[in-house]
Design a protein that fits this description.
By secondary structure, the protein is mostly helical. It contains 11 helices and no strands. It starts with a helix and ends with a helix.
Length: 214
Amino acid sequence: MTMTQQRKQAERQARRRRIQTAARGVFAEKGYAKTSIEQIARQANLSVGAIYLYFRSKEDLYVSLLEETLDGVNAELNSIRVSETPRLRDAWSYLAQWATTDVEATRVLRQVCQPGVRKQLSDEVAEGTGRRLDTARDHLSAILEAGVARGEYRGGDTAVTVDTLWALFLGLLQQTDARTNLGVEGPTLAEAAHASFGLIEATLKNNTAALRAA
């Protein structure tokens, strides 16, 4: 890549981040449904046409906000992975804390789960988000494997276990949303995550007594 190409690429990334920064503020203030590309363009001091040079749709821009967030999540998971004693419980506790404190990011994550969203996404956003989610999955797999190697957990299909953990995480987000929207009392996300992991960990340890208690 020539110096000119590198400069243009850097300028493009800077403009893209500028749009994302503006969008993050507008989405946080107004919510996804009430936010328009026109409002984001005004916040970024750009034309609507300029926004569409970088993002295919409002959905595309919204999902792109996961890029920076997931980079931070992966940095934290990696720090657990490379620690002296990587523990799956620590990784799970971090994810629960992240979901509790960064509510807007988890809303974006749930948007990715909606039917038909892929056709609204550019390849750049879909591939970048997918790659970051795969990285998170790789970190969790490595942390789980470290526990197996220490004899803390029994061996098994790591991929299935991590997929189950991720499905549980998304399910807890949805369950918390449903209770909040309906005004139904129940455990907080953090409390539900703690209790759920206890059951998962008992299974990983083949702790039949704990499973019966659960």
